[in-house]
Amino acid sequence: MLLEIENLVVRYGSIEALHGVSFTVDEGEVVTLIGANGAGKTTTLLSICRLPPPEAPRVAEGDIRFAGRSILAVEPHDVVRALKMALVPEGRRIFGNLTVEENLELATYARRGDPGVVKDLERVFQLFPRLRERRRQRSESLSGGEQQMLAVGRALMTGCRVLLLDEPSMGLAPVLKYEMFRALKRLNQEGVTILLVEQNAALALKFAHRGYVLDTGRIVAEGPTDHLLSNEEVKRAYLGG
Ligand SMILES: Nc1ncnc2c1ncn2[C@@H]1O[C@H](COP(=O)(O)OP(=O)(O)OP(=O)(O)O)[C@@H](O)[C@H]1O
Ligand SMILES: [Mg+2]
């Protein structure tokens, strides 16, 4: 198993956000974690990547294993460099005053001299032709959807093999949502493993192979996505009937 989250309890100070969450992601899979506002989706992703304080939620119990080894002590930059796992954060967080190209280049700082960089840049531009057209444009002048594409592109420029995505469809017009998910599907077909966090359960369950439903810090349903799509409780609570 590539990624194993076992009985994860996570706290922000005295607030417990995850109460013992377990799930797995196998190599080559697309797994989705769906849930309403405040369910703990972002917390789960941040716990896996462990961004530097003060944002970092604290893992109080449980374990996170990558290829069978605990990564709780791995430095956040090594999560990217050594494990090749990259986060596309909620709200994108790109540098608005830099151009598209500069944002993409910035993500390669840990790969200086790696000939794969040029190939990855071409791959990003093939996946998202709009980014190629706008590569010298300041990023703040991109539309929301284009900025989301840039955020995914930036993650790919780290050379990652595992993508953790925090609500990539958020705020996108339908046509851009479609473009985004088509690009993600292509990446998965090329071998990139995807853990997708979404409030848009219908979209996520159509896209992923397996899913987990997170409700206020607990997994309440799991299984192949076609099973979840026909699960009466999931339908009622997350699919609008
Ligand atoms: N920095 C923080 N300090 C304290 N509590 C936090 C912090 N970040 C999140 N929480 C709490 O942890 C719980 C889970 O939040 P989280 O952001 O993981 O939810 P989410 O599923 O990503 O929600 P959304 O769909 O709105 O993004 C919530 O109760 C939230 O209030
Ligand atoms: Mg969130």
Structural features, described:
The longest helix has 16 residues, at 174-189. The protein is of the alpha/beta class. The protein has a 6-stranded mixed beta sheet, sandwiched between helices. Strands 2-1-4-5 form a 4-stranded antiparallel beta sheet, covered by helices on one side. 42% of the residues are buried. It has helices at residues 41-49, 76-81, 100-106, 116-127, 129-133, 144-156, 174-189, 201-207, 225-230, 232-238, and strands at residues 3-12, 15-25, 30-34, 58-66, 69-70, 85-88, 162-166, 193-198, 210-215, 218-224. A hairpin with a 2-residue loop joins strand 1 (3-12) and strand 2. It is built from 10 helices and 10 strands.
Write the layout of secondary structure elements.
Blueprint: E1 3-12, E2 15-25, E3 30-34, H1 41-49, E4 58-66, E5 69-70, H2 76-81, E6 85-88, H3 100-106, H4 116-127, H5 129-133, H6 144-156, E7 162-166, H7 174-189, E8 193-198, H8 201-207, E9 210-215, E10 218-224, H9 225-230, H10 232-238
Parallel strand pairs: 3-8, 3-9, 6-7, 7-8
Antiparallel strand pairs: 1-2, 1-4, 4-5, 9-10
Helix pairs in contact: 3-6
Bound molecules: adenosine-5'-triphosphate (ATP) and magnesium ion.
Adenosine-5'-triphosphate is lined by residues 12, 15, 17, 35, 37-43, 90, 199.
As residue ranges, the low-confidence spans are none
CA radius of gyration: 17 Å
Instruction: Output the structural class.
Output: alpha/beta
- Give the N-terminus to C-terminus distance in angstroms: 34 Å
Mean pLDDT: 92
Using DSSP, what is the number of strands? Answer: 10
Largest sheet: 6 strands, mixed
Q: In which range does the helix fraction lie?
A: 25-40%
Instruction: Catalogue the ligands.
Output: adenosine-5'-triphosphate, magnesium ion
What is the H/E string? EEEHEEHEHHHHEHEHEEHH
- Net shape: globular
Strand content: 25-35%
**Discrete helix count:** 10
Sequence of strands across the biggest β-sheet: 6-7-8-3-9-10
